[in-house]
Amino acid sequence: METTELDFFRDKSLVDDPYPFFDSLREECPVRREPHQGVFMVTGYEEALQVYHDTATFSSANSVTGPFPGFATPLEGDDVTDQIEAQRDALPFSDQLPTFDPPKHTTHRGLLMRLITPKRLKENEDFIWKLADRQIDEFVDRGRVELISEFANPFAMLVIADLLGVPEADHEIFRRQLATPQGGLGSTKDETLAHKPLEWLYGRFSSYIEERRHEPRDDVLTKMAQATYPDGSTPDVADVTGVAANLFAAGQETTVRLIGASFQRLAEDTELQQRLREDPDRVANFVEEMLRFESPVKGDFRVARVATTIGGVDIPAGTTVMVLNSAANRDPRKFECPAEFRPERDNAREHLSFGHGIHFCPGAPLARTEGRVTVQRLLDRLQEIRISEAEHGPAGARTFNYLPTFILRGVTRLHLTFTPAGG
Predict the structure, then answer these.
(1) Of 198 and 105, the one with more pLDDT
(2) What angle do CA 21, 25, 31 make, to 5 degrees?
(3) How many Å separate Cα 275 from the centre of its chain?
(4) pLDDT at 188
(5) How does residue 174 score in pLDDT terms, banded at 50, 70 and 90?
(6) Taking the alpha carbons of 389, 395, 399, 404 in that order, is the dihedral positive or negative?
(7) pLDDT at 419 over 70
(8) Cα 129 to Cα 131: distance, rounded to the nearest angstrom
(9) Cα separations in angstroms, 41 against 22, 50, 61
(10) Cα–Cα 20 to 30 A to 79, which of 148, 241, 333, 407?
């Protein structure tokens, strides 16, 4: 493949299948500058780890948006740290944890981890099992389902709502407000991203936190309102709501795409369905291999504060770097026969789909649980799961629509047919 002719950030042909492009980039060099936006693309596993772990050299200020819109004033000089700080707040998502650098990142992540404790995650898992059955009850008798809108989207949203203690009476409000994905994030359509695209969530959680600080109750929201930074200081209401909004934004998308990819794969392999039904202990590794094979997030961005090298390649100060998790997950130097889906792969869990280092996804345990529970309950309750004819094009071939974005990876819909278990 001639990689220089394709603009990864704008070419729609790479939305459906980016993997040949990634392979070609890696074969040329695991760290390579693409000519259209001037971004250095990191496709190698070890090279990706180098970037993720070097927070002194690489800033996360542009981690979500990369070159779009980029820094208003070009970053110039041998050390652009001060220039990054001067322009940081003008970038979209600048109030969200993924874009923070130490020491601010350290304190805010510490706050987040006080909200999603092992005890709280265990309580949430009990809810997840019940919710999965409740969502399945809505369509099981029909023998068909559009899995993304009828199961994955509401399921992922309500799981996080429960985790954060949103009153059950408000669940339907959240379901209506968050049913439509936020447009613009990593769009190949050159859409404009709002500076603060999570305003509705900010407003909602601000009300919850302020109310609980004035009138504490025996609930999760009160614990959130009373949470402190690791040093014992009390965070502003805006800081707490920012953490909550980040969980909704990141956690929902990741889980929805994982569920879609899992059943896109399972619906084409009835033997694999049966093996997982007969031995549920295999499901956890299936989920890990699914995350490796189809990472819900294609990659993250960084900007170099000073001149450096990655894998022997010179990176000038002020350069935007994209760590392509999806490509690193298919690096043959790390994973044997990486283009093959192997549900029992020994090192599947070493994928980079949740990132690595200080920005490793704090919701990873939650996403893994949601994936495992979803696969187990759907396989338990649905037999002979297949792709519906609704996903066939005019010539009879499979036609899946993928999210038109260079950040996220997943189908926008997935029509399935099945036989209810015992039916």
Answers:
(1) 105
(2) 140
(3) 28
(4) 64
(5) confident
(6) negative
(7) yes
(8) 6
(9) 9, 13, 17
(10) 407
Residue 238 neighbours by CB under 8 Å, 6+ apart? 95, 202, 206
Residue type, 74: P
Please report how the helices 364-381 and 118-137 are oriented relative to each other, as an axis angle in degrees rounded to 10. 30
Question: How would you write the chain as a 3-class SS string?
Answer: CCHHHCCCCCCCHHHHCCHHHHHHHHHHCCEEECCCCCCEEECCHHHHHHHHHCCCCEECCCCCCCCCCCCCCCCCCCECHHHHHHHHHHCCCCCCHHHCCCCHHHHHHHHHHHHCCHHHHHHHHHHHHHHHHHHHHCCHHHCEEEHHHHHHHHHHHHHHHHHCCCCHHHHHHHHHHCCCCCCCCCECCCCCCCCCCCHHHHHHHHHHHHHHHHCCCCCHHHHHHHCCCCCCCCCCHHHHHHHHHHHHHHHHHHHHHHHHHHHHHHCCCHHHHHHHHHCHHHHHHHHHHHHHHCCCECCEEEEECECEEECCEEECCCCEEEECHHHHCCCCCCCCCCCCCCCCCCCHHHCCCCCCHHHCCCCHHHHHHHHHHHHHHHHHHEEEEEECHHHECCCCCECCCECCECCECCECCCEEEEEECCC
Strand partners, 322: 41, 301
In this prediction, residue 399 carries a pLDDT of 82
Pick the closest to residue 391 from 368, 369, 414 (CA basis): 414
Q: Could you tell me whether strands 308-310 and 313-315 are parallel, antiparallel, or unpaired per DSSP bridges? A: antiparallel
Backbone angles phi, psi at 234, to 5 degrees: -90, 125
What is the reported pTM?
0.93
Taking every pair of C-alpha atoms in the chain, what is the biggest distance, in angstroms?
69
